[in-house]
Design brief:
The structure is a homodimer of 289-residue chains.
Chain A: E1 10-14, H1 20-29, E2 35-39, H2 51-67, E3 72-75, H3 78-91, E4 96-98, H4 100-110, E5 115-120, H5 122-127, H6 129-137, E6 142-147, H7 150-156, H8 163-178, E7 183-187, H9 195-202, E8 207-209, H10 211-225, E9 241-245, H11 249-259, E10 267-269
Helix pairs in contact in A: 1-10, 2-3, 4-6, 4-10, 8-9
């Protein structure tokens, strides 16, 4: 594969719109970088799906992003990071980072009582990846995970500041509060949209960690280390930001324009299944329980 | 294509587990019939996706079901019925029915004040297909649709009899109640699981119509008319009920076993994308709004 230059775009992908909270942070913190974003809106959400399926979808997306000659890939989805990052990193030469590692490092660092809560999708929490990462940075960390499957729907319904959402968050956080956590990782890219509700329910004494913010910081360091930062003085060819989705572009735009600091001009729909790789395909059976 | 005999199975499909409320009714009302069920668990839900995507997914599934030599197909998903039934019927020789028509006929018949509410996914309500069908059976019908995107997640979270669910249903039904509806179609296959909450919120004076029940009745008539009913005296070859999914079988089993009157023995995972048909593929762009 031809070496991709430092003026190439960064590839960012997510199961849908949630990853735009990561794209937003990259735009803020690395304003000179170009970006190609893919949202797998035809197959979202990933959070309720199995690891093998999420790996297969992620491989297809990586294959697509590589046709755009990206210089690095950010998996802007906690579920895909939890399920597929290790596999993708093994398979790819270009740098690939996910949203879990940087957030775990920060959380492991800021906690004072070493009691850390993680909220996320069923798949993210079930994977135990946050706990694994946290233990690397803070071996004393006690990690308490809680799957919150309703919160993505509530965020997408637009009930961001709402008594029902507050009640749902309260119920989900109850277990974690009994554990006296002092740090809470918002381990799903939709959750920063519900930040004020988390703040209200969790109280002022709990530090909220936003992986979207942390991964943008990590990306900046990574690009600097590998001499891949964009050359500000070179005239850029092509669009600065490109957006691709697997379902209808219009629907994506609506939500996207409420998350990003500017309105997206064009979104292209592609058939992501065309980027199928030769995967291990297994027929599984579920024996009578 | 070889003519499929009356002892062939019925093909039933849904985006996931919701269609099992339809499968359950078919098992009850047509206990002698064999069935092949497919749940598209890798790509669920359909309710937030665009019509073209739902048509493409439905075509792949029909192609798969035909490899099982089904004698008829039931689209056990309101969204897929709303978005894809007409297309599929045009393309197929074998009988294909959906969940909307029978429910609309019954609702159009039982209403006394001709004010009918429909609750369903964003895609189902947005399609206007219930209204179209209702007008065919009752031209005086005033139809009020309400998309309830949170209810599938609440049902799958298992919060079936819950104050939060009651509050969400109350909020969704408020608009319909102002319209003085006397009949309410539960236009999503998950909603019968929330029937008691709907009953409580809507009150005793509103007739609830369950499309799962009505489509099983319609299927029975259809099979009789076309002389396709199973011959009770013939020894059946093969399994009575077969279940296929596109994501991990285990996850499907858990929910399935809480919906069906017996525990599923085996579920097979297949790669539904292998059944891709030669579709019209379009790149769409979303112009700046």
């Amino acid at each position: 594969m031809a070496k991709t230059g430092s003026n190439a775009p960064i590839g960012v992908f997510d199961s849908g719109v949630g990853g735009l909270t990561v794209a937003r942070e990259i735009m803020r913190q690395l304003p000179e970088e170009r970006m190609v974003y893919f949202g797998d809106t035809a197959r979202l959400p990933y959070g309720t799906k199995s690891q093998n399926t999420v790996i297969r979808f992620s491989r297809q997306i990586v294959r697509f992003l590589k046709t755009k000659e990206v210089k690095a890939i950010v998996i802007a989805c906690n579920t895909a990071t939890a399920c597929a990052l290790e596999e993708i990193q093994k398979e790819q030469e270009l740098p690939v980072i996910g949203v879990i590692d940087a957030a775990a490092r920060v959380a492991g660092d800021v906690t004072e009582n070493n009691r850390i809560g993680v909220v996320g999708t069923t798949a993210t929490i079930g994977s135990g990846m946050y706990e694994k990462a946290l233990k690397q940075y803070n071996e004393k960390a006690q990690v308490y995970g809680k799957a919150c499957p309703l919160l993505v729907s509530l965020a997408e319904e637009g009930w961001l500041h709402d008594t029902i959402t507050e009640e749902v968050v309260s119920r989900y956080l109850k277990d974690l509060q009994y554990k006296s956590i002092d740090t809470l990782i918002l381990g799903c890219t939709h959750y920063p949209l519900l930040r004020s509700t988390f703040r209200k329910v969790a109280g002022e004494n709990v530090t909220l960690v936003n992986p979207a913010y942390e991964v943008a910081m990590e990306l900046r360091s990574l690009l600097q280390e590998r001499a891949l930062s964009c050359d500000k003085d070179v005239e850029q060819a092509g669009k600065k930001y490109e957006f691709f989705v697997s379902d209808a572009a219009e629907k994506f735009c609506e939500l996207a324009n409420s998350i990003l600091p500017y309105d997206i001009e064009t979104v292209q729909q592609i058939n992501i299944e065309d980027f199928e790789t030769e995967d291990f395909r297994e027929e599984t059976t579920c024996k009578k329980m």
